[in-house]
Amino acid sequence: MAAERYSAGAKAKSDCLVAYERGDAPLEVAVKSSVGALFGAAIAAAVRRVAAEFGADRGRLEIEDDGALDSAITARTEAALRKAGFARAAPSAIVAGAALTAAAVAAPSAEQATAAVAPAAAGAATAAASREPSPRDRPRRARLYLPGDQPHLAINAGLFGADCLIFDLEDAVAEERKFDARILVRVALERGVMLESSEVAVRVNPLSGPYGADDLAEIVRARPQAIILPKCESAADVAAADSAIGALEEAAGMPHGFVRLMPLVETAAGVLQAAAIAAASPRNVALCFGREDFSRDIRAVPFAPGADLAASAAPPNAAALQGAAMLQSAAAAPAAAPTGFGFAGIPGAESFLARQMIVLAARAAGIDPLDSVFADVEDEAGLIRSCAEARALGFAGKGVIHPVQIPVVLKAFRPTDKEAARAERIVAAFDAAVAEGRGAISVDGAMVDAPVAAKARALLAQHRGEA
């Protein structure tokens, strides 16, 4: 009878497939790698190091590698061993097991043997421990979503300049890969793999489902700076996450409140509770909107420009015909130059009210409202329009799904030089009026009072990169 195999990972670029088989013989490690000639011994050493941490000194580990970094090899090995029932040993047991593991490495140098037996968690903890909490008011203009189970997409993610990197364990990960993915993301956060200066966040699965609690238990100890809480529909959802995170922070010896929260509203129920959600926890730093799931939840029917709306099944009364004529007129208008929301913005009309409610709720709670992603990566003009609309509504940033969208979004949410120049005139005129004891004044034909001046100061801070 063949031994049962426990596998993790994939035979894919910058990834590896690790399989463990039980056995009575001393642990055997077999490596098949596209870079084996150069790094085969190092890969085997990394695998043995993890095996020692989990007390796996018998059986066979097979690794099929296509250029995976050490963090991916470590995570995939750990996942396979945990599926087989192994648990991380106590530090003393790791040291004892390491001596056996080192002896099994084929003709290692002294340096290789040392690397093979050094506990991975020791070095990994250094990178995670140096991560500081995110400032509450840091810019979150462009937040890049990264599928949590695809290590090749995370390798250079920190170089793209996104304000926030979001490792996604929810929609981007198939159900059968969620266990592997959360370990991969945890190890990436522990190692600090090329995360640069971006805020580091993780979108976990909903806590109401079968995966969310396990996601938090795995991820919080790696010190993410924020958790994205999806399908958030009530203040109770936020309170539950806050409580769970607090307990995990305490268990990991982390400062209370280290991990921020960004509730993600994606349903009609969530939109109607947006104000309560936004104010539900001192961890909250932003309120996010998910348009695709929201549109599906309210059963909105996509609008196709150019459709024969007059031939719809609606009763042919005067109001219906007039509405159809207006929609057709909007569809025929040049798409590159919408003048407002209304019918010119019909592709997003189903979410217009919801987005306004998200903005109002977030601003009232003193946190940032963040708009949904723009799904068409190739439509730069559409992304520019979507960003302009979001900024006009009051959003502070937008989600992106590809690095090519990042500079477009960053530029869109940064005040222009013309806007900054006008803000400078407003601030200068207002300060002069205050010094002279005058009340409200006029700049460029518009009245300026204290709220207008405060808004101008905030815009200047954004333009200088201070907010």
Please, could you describe this protein's structure?
- With 467 residues, the chain is an alpha/beta fold.
- Helix content is 44%, strand content 16%.
- It contains 18 helices and 14 strands.
- It has helices at 36-53, 70-83, 91-104, 110-117, 120-129, 151-154, 178-191, 212-219, 235-251, 268-272, 274-278, 291-297, 318-332, 352-365, 380-393, 406-412, 417-435, 450-463, and strands at 5-9, 16-26, 28-33, 58-65, 142-147, 164-168, 199-203, 226-229, 260-265, 286-289, 368-371, 397-400, 441-443, 446-448.
- The longest helix has 19 residues, at 417-435.
Count the E strands: 14
Q: Low-confidence runs (pLDDT<50, min 5 residues)?
A: 92-124, 309-315, 318-345
Total helices: the number is: 18
**In the CATH classification, which architecture of the largest domain applies?**
Alpha-Beta Barrel
Query: Which percent bin holds the helix content?
Result: 40-55%
CATH C-level class of the largest domain is: Alpha Beta
Terminal CA distance reads 64 Å
Task: Name the strands of the widest sheet in spatial order.
Answer: 5-6-7-8-9-10-11-12
Describe the global form.
elongated
At the fourth level of CATH, the homologous superfamily of the largest domain is: Phosphoenolpyruvate-binding domains
β-strand amount: 15-25%
Largest sheet: 8 strands, parallel, barrel
Structural class: alpha/beta
